[in-house]
Design brief:
432 residues; alpha/beta; Thiol Ester Dehydrase, Chain A; Rossmann fold; 7-stranded mixed beta sheet; 6-stranded antiparallel beta sheet; Thioesterase domain-containing protein; Methyltransf_25; HotDog_dom_sf; Thioestr_dom
Length: 432
């Protein structure tokens, strides 16, 4: 079950023992109370590691064992004493500490429900919204109470409220609402099954471009979910957001009113563009253009409403839609390993389209050759660091930054075992 749980709820992996330790659905009265005592003991043990151990989160009360029939009175309560490690630069409790506390309580309750009442299912958080109502200071003790709003077979909705100090005073600090997707247990490992289907019979050496486009058309409706459970969003898209924050500082220093034009190659459903727009926003005067081989993916990206232009395009062919020196930033993720004409077409086109400016950059990924390729059976090309540097150099581009993501995303190898695929994430510019 461990692959079915989001990273922010990783502590709850140990709760898989609920189905063995706390069984049955027909118990009443004191039986439920006894189950809650056992649940609290298990949670207390499993929560004492990682981030929660570092932050000092502790379980104080649990009433979850009858939530299928008594949702209104079900809850989990945790506490966290505020120390220096929780503070921000202004001397107040860091918002991340508060959000983590809410997420911990919600994740525990949601996993308990999915595992106990949905036949050993897992869960993943789809979205979360936190509203802050007041600050907290060092030496305060925060108390979070998480309660289920909706408990369904497909989704759950939970709310968590953080209080300050004495429960009798009822002083609210923050309130979080999260939507949770239940992941049904299919032979104990739905993640593996989903990803096996994703990679089944996919080989760029034997598939035509039309077949590849059709495959991604099929994936497009579930792309948000697939990139979440495969951890692509957690790793690759998080890297994009990090780079965007650095870029934002550079743009603000240049103090220009000109459009900041971005070409997003292999757009997919628009995850990269969304990450850029969320960080840069309208303040940078950003203008997004996207290209992808799949009409289905382009349609999903169009729904975001952030791209000015979107085109269906095969990146093994020249990009004739645009003039030379058109873009300030070109992004290209998860596609170089699939191309037949990377060196002769795509890289020369990136060089041609990138503006000759000190602020212009290209962010591009290469599937990294670490000798243990999970996706090699799909005909994917892999690259070593020196090969990447030399490849870019041949096209008059120099590396500014090169970072290895050992776990860019998860994919089954030929044996069916889910393994991480490493990426080499490169920031480069024109060397002219």
């Amino acid at each position: 079950m461990k692959n079915n749980v989001s990273s922010l709820q990783s502590f709850s992996l140990g709760l898989k023992h609920f189905s063995n330790t706390i069984t049955g659905r027909r118990e009443v009265g004191s039986d439920f109370e006894m189950q809650d005592v056992k649940a609290k003991q298990i949670i207390e043990k499993k929560i004492k590691f990682g981030l929660n151990k570092h932050l000092g989160v502790r379980v104080s009360r649990v009433k979850l064992s009858n939530m299928e029939n008594d949702r209104e009175n079900s809850f989990i309560e945790m506490t966290m004493p505020i120390t220096e490690i929780h503070m921000n630069a202004m001397g107040l409790v860091h918002g991340g500490s508060i959000i983590t506390m809410c997420d911990t309580a919600i994740g525990t309750g949601a996993y308990f429900y999915a595992n106990k009442f949905l036949d050993g299912a897992g869960m993943v958080v789809l979205d979360s919204f936190t509203q802050f109502t007041r600050h907290a200071n060092i030496n305060d003790v925060l108390r979070v109470v998480a309660k289920p709003r909706h408990l369904g077979r497909k989704t759950q909705t939970w709310e968590a409220t953080i209080y300050l100090g004495d429960p009798k005073e009822n002083i609210k600090v923050a309130h979080t609402v999260s939507t949770v997707l239940n992941i049904p247990n299919e032979d104990g490992d739905l993640l593996s099954e989903k990803l096996k289907k994703l990679g089944k019979n996919f080989n760029i050496n034997t598939m035509s471009k039309e077949e590849i486009a059709a495959r991604f058309d099929k994936y497009s409706e579930q792309w948000e979910f697939l990139t979440k459970i495969s951890e692509y969003q957690k790793n690759v898209i998080a890297w994009v957001a990090k780079q965007a924050n650095t870029l934002k500082q550079q743009i603000s220093c240049n103090n220009t009113s000109n459009k900041f034009k971005v070409l997003d190659l292999a757009t997919g459903s628009g995850l990269v563009g969304k990450a850029l727009y969320n960080v840069l926003g309208e303040s940078s005067n950003i203008e997004l253009t996207g290209l992808d081989i799949s009409q289905g993916m382009i349609s999903k990206a169009e729904q975001l409403g952030i791209y000015r232009n979107l085109f269906v395009h095969d990146l093994d062919k020249k990009i004739s839609q645009f003039q030379d020196n058109s873009f300030d930033l070109i992004t290209c993720f998860g596609v170089t390993e699939m191309l037949h004409n990377l060196e002769t077409v795509l890289l020369p086109e990136i060089k041609r389209l990138l503006k000759k400016s000190s602020r212009s950059q290209c962010w591009i990924s290469f599937q990294y050759n670490d000798g243990k390729q999970a996706a090699a059976h799909q005909g994917m090309k892999t690259f070593k660091e020196d090969e990447i540097v030399e490849l870019l150099k041949k096209n008059n581009m120099k590396v500014i930054q090169l970072e290895i993501l050992k776990n860019a995303y998860l994919l089954p190898d030929p044996s069916g075992s889910v393994k991480p695929v490493p990426f080499c994430m490169v920031t480069c510019c024109l060397d002219e």
